[in-house]
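Support reply, case 0932

Customer input (verbatim):
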Amino acid sequence: MRQFKIVVEKHPDGYVAYPLGLKGVVVGQGDTYEEALSDVKSAIRFHIETFGKEVLEVEPRIIEAFVAETGVEI
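Our regenerated output:
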């Protein structure tokens, strides 16, 4: 088993989830947080089965992930 850091975003029409530290684009979605997380886990499995374990070879490895918010003058 391999652990992935997943970003889950809440939007007006549902949730979107995507993993960090994986080569390629992998996205899951759902009406709930749990559905989006389940969907992205399935998408990660499919992505690895389709493209091979090379998609896991991302360096440097992500140790922590943070979500921050800041204002920018525009």
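We compared this against your earlier run and they match. Two observations from our side: Residues 33-51 form the longest helix (19 residues). The radius of gyration is 14 Å. Please reopen the case if you see a mismatch on your end.
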